[in-house]
Amino acid sequence: MAALRRIARERGGWWHAYVCPAHGVELEHGDLLAGAFPEGGARCAYGCRVDDEAVRGAWLVLSHQAWARHLRVLAHRGERAEAVARLVEYTALYEELAVERHGEAQGWMLRGRLFHQALTDAIWAVNIGHTVLTLAEEGTGDLQPVLPLLDSLERAALDARAVLTGQGQLASNYTAWLNAAGAATGRAAAAVRGREWDGRKEWLEGDSGLYAHLRVAVAEDGWEWEGSTYYHGFVLRAALLALRGTDPAELPADVAGVLAGMTDALAAVATPGGILPALHDGPYLRAPLALEWLELVALAQQLVPSTALDAVAGRARADLGGADDGLDRELGGWFAGPPLPERPAPGPLTLFAVAGYAVLRVAGIHALLDFGPHGGSHGHRDKLSLCLYGETTPWQPDPGQVPYAHAEFRDLYASTDAHPAFRVDGLEQAECAGRLLAADERSVTAEVTEAYAGVRGVRRIVAGEGYLVDLLTVTADAPRRITAQLRPGTALDVAAQSGGAARTTWYGDETLHGWHTALAGVPMRPVSRPGPGTADDPQRARTRVDLTADTDRVTFASVYQAASAGPAVTGVTADGAGLTVRLADGSTAHFVPED
């Protein structure tokens, strides 16, 4: 017998509280459409059962959002009676909650009515609006009772946006979703009334509309200002959802350019196998996130096609176990016209000068250097981090972030210690920005001078013939303990070599080999120890390696080669101020760090 499904009658809280206090993992969701919190408490993968007010409120967020998504699917499938009945039920519930905003929201939040945050209300409202729009295509008589809900949601979005813009926060990611909510619910209400939608000026074209938001929130290199993969996609997805029924050819040229640039940015950081690095404060791996990426790609491909994003969709489907509710079909024909011209595939080096990312691709290695601004509230203390991926293997990934309510693990994953960056005297980097020094078709060099007082770090990444060279130079005003950090997302072996470079082997779908030494005769210790892996499971131990030297100046030199590449690296030698790489075909190459 199928489980009884019902809509919960309580307000949702803050979804980030849905986390195990003991283990830092997101709790299991259970049947979100059942309308009742799991009996005995929410389960943790390690056997905990958690039940408190915050966790119950977080579960309600997930449940209400799942219902909104489910209603959109029902409308697409033609299951009209069920969809309309639930919309009417939500109309009554929302009216009951109209007496006040959420009284338990945290002080920094812009409060909603159904949820702690107005942002969460807006995300929910977007799906409600699109559910009604789809149903209205086949008739509107039974949708008249839903009009009070649509009107209330549009007014709530307008009021919340006015608060944000009054605070000078037009660039906030809240603004993107409030505009999407206003557009979706306003269009839906107009469709139910049988009228032309007259909200384009308010929600798209106006001084606080979507176009104005995108113009200030996205830099000229295509990145949303926070420099976070997740929040970049978060804003882009809101924009694409807001543009239902729009002819791409009728978009303002600069707005079309922004949307294309945002799509290019995701395509450039994605690996050939579809991994999107969790740069600056996004979830590392989460099924609802995979569904969001799949939705975004389905919409983006209709607006600005990008072959490089096809793999992202494939990866998202794999993370969902193949269950995507026919999302591509549901979103087919979202735009009212042919797409913009297809975007070219990224080249060997892609540089994002404002966000401060450089992507270098060489012989099976997808390398990403992070040297830019801190990233606002979503930044991490990780300047000059070097992330390394194979096609489908996260050898040395950005570790991502746990649900925010877990303060201890959240701070751990924002820390320098968690990232493939550098540390001095075991201390945390300051929140700071680096800068680009040089770049050409085969290399990139960046520096940071404010991570530690009296310390300068310079990292040069070079694409060799079938391998990658990493030269990290740290100079201090006095002898310090300087550490270059290896932070694997996969199993790793490390072996010290008598009189030579230390060796590492990184496993996964593909294998990576590494050689590590220090230049100019500086003694270096490759210290390995267990540490937490990526943020999807802080209890999963990985072998961390700290390449450490006690000095006032050191260049840590590393060479990486995918096992599939050739000719094979047979050894590396530190000679004076440079590094020589020897290959199996007898050739050699010499590399020196930037001053």
Could you explain the architecture of this structure?
The protein has 595 residues and is of the alpha+beta class. It has helices at residues 53-77, 80-96, 118-136, 147-166, 173-193, 200-205, 210-217, 229-242, 253-269, 287-303, 310-319, 327-331, 407-414, and strands spanning 42-43, 49-50, 349-352, 357-362, 365-370, 385-389, 422-424, 435-439, 443-448, 455-463, 468-486, 492-495, 502-506, 512-518, 525-532, 541-562, 569-575, 578-583, 588-591. It is 31% helix and 22% strand. Strand 13 (502-506) and strand 14 form a beta hairpin. Helix 2 packs antiparallel against helix 3, helix 2 crosses helix 4 (147-166) and helix 10 runs antiparallel to helix 11 (310-319). It is elongated. The mean pLDDT is 95.
Alpha carbon gap, first and last residue: 71 Å
Q: How many DSSP E strands?
A: 19
Shape: elongated
Which ranges are low-confidence, i.e. pLDDT below 50, for 5 or more consecutive residues? none
Rounded mean pLDDT score: 95
Summarize the biggest pleated sheet.
Answer: 10 strands, antiparallel
SS content category? alpha+beta
Q: Which range does the strand content fall in?
A: 15-25%
